[in-house]
Amino acid sequence: MAEQTEVRHQRRILHHIGIRGKLLAFLAIAVVFIITLEIVAQNATYRAAEEYEQDLAHYHLVHRLRATLDSFRLNSDRFIKDPNSIPIENLFETIATLNSLSSSLAPVEELSIEAGFEVRAIGYGFDAYLPILSRSLSSRASGRTDYYADFARADRIAGYIDTYLSRLLSILLRDGEARFKIISSRMKEINKIILIGIAIAGLLSLGYVFLIANSITKPIRKLASASEKLARGELEIDPLPRKSRDEVGVLAESFFIMSQNIRLSIENLREKAELEQKLHEEELTLLSMGKALREAQFMNLQDQMRPHFLFNALNSIARTALLEKAKATEKLAISLSKLLRATIKEGGPYIPISEEVDIVQEYLAFQKARFGDRFEWHIIFDPELNACRIPRFLLQPLVENAIRHGVEPKEDKTEILVSIRRRGERLRIAVADTGTGMAAEKLAELNLRLRQPFDSVSAKAGSDNLVSANGIGLVNVANRLTILYGQEALMRIYSVPGKGTIVRLSLPLKGIARWPESL
Fold first, then answer.
1. Percentages helix, strand, coil for the chain, rounded to the nearest 5?
2. Which of 200, 220, 235 marks a domain boundary?
3. Which residues make beta-bridge pairs with 426?
4. Strand partners for 352
5. What are the tens digits of pLDDT across the range 381-436?
6. Containing domain of residue 126, as a range?
7. Is residue 219 part of a domain?
8. Among 159-163, 264-268, 429-433, which range has the highest average pLDDT?
9. Three-state SS for 503?
């Protein structure tokens, strides 16, 4: 009943608004119209600036990639001529930079058909160029004499890439100039229309303001006088004469109702505060339960890290003892003892990066004994990162996958590179091999599953050795990183059939450095 009475009251107010209300409504429409025009102008300007900045960013990206490639070619040539002239680590860092810049060209491919053709050509060129040149640099650094053929071949490919980059720059300049002309013409038309609209709306608004100013200010002065009496404590105020039910009349009537509404609002706020307090306590309880669940999930995944790779190490020891009459058995036995100690060592799920690198080195030494000349490996590690702690057995599963799926199926010589670097406030880890690689469809599916590791495990557990590896594969690593770092941890795989595979990890360095040992 109260709601129906309020609705009827509002209808009577609307019925008695009169001409002044209509004039005010028109004035409001004029103001809204002007504001709308201004918003349209601002949006148009913002879109134009955004398009221009995007074109400029694309041009700078391509130019930077070309400049980096030119500098890298000069440094590579210097290294080939004199390996002591420049550290090989700098060259491999530049290779990583070129990979990153090349991957950043993906948005440029959507600009036009011509740009897309050049971007794809550049991508194919880098996919062929970087592995060949890496192999040539590694051969030169190790003192081998068969490096020059690969270097010459890589340099020819670099020349083609430089040509594609030059053509892409020309396309970006041409298309950017055309878009700039279109944007400029469009902005001129929009500004002209907006100025005309603002002028018309301003003139109409001034006329109506002059007409209604007197009819509004007179009753407002009376209401102000009554409010001053109330402020002085004079509660006995005569009701204002109400000749019409306009906004001033509604204001006077609402003045008396306001105190009741304030009391009701205070009571509602008190109840709301009590309810929010209860909800906050329940939220804290749920957060505590969620944390316990995440810790249980992590410890369950950590328990899955069985050192099954030691069986391969034992086979290598037996084979070496048989062929060499136990001359190399002592060395392999010492390495095996180190691996066993690392496997059963207690002290929590985190270890310093240096210890994890030692485990990987021992494992790779075993694989070297197993594959002989078919296999070479390199580790690039910044000693300044020794104090940082990472999850135990984070690198070994990645290296093991590179051995199983890159080295074993390939009869030719294969190389594995493990790189651990600091980039700003993040730790960048890369495990690259020159093995068999994988098809694009399989690579896309794998990356999708790694982005949703828990869903992948529940949906397709054991369906792919590369992903599952009896619980110690890439998804296991992705699961642990998700539990520890959430969305701050990134894991991606890049692969080219017949060329090799790269697994990249990016972790927050601050988070790694502050993990307690007892976690």
1. 75, 10, 15
2. 200
3. 423, 508
4. 389
5. 888 888 788 888 888 899 989 898 888 888 888 999 999 998 888 899 999 999 88
6. 24-200
7. no
8. 429-433
9. strand
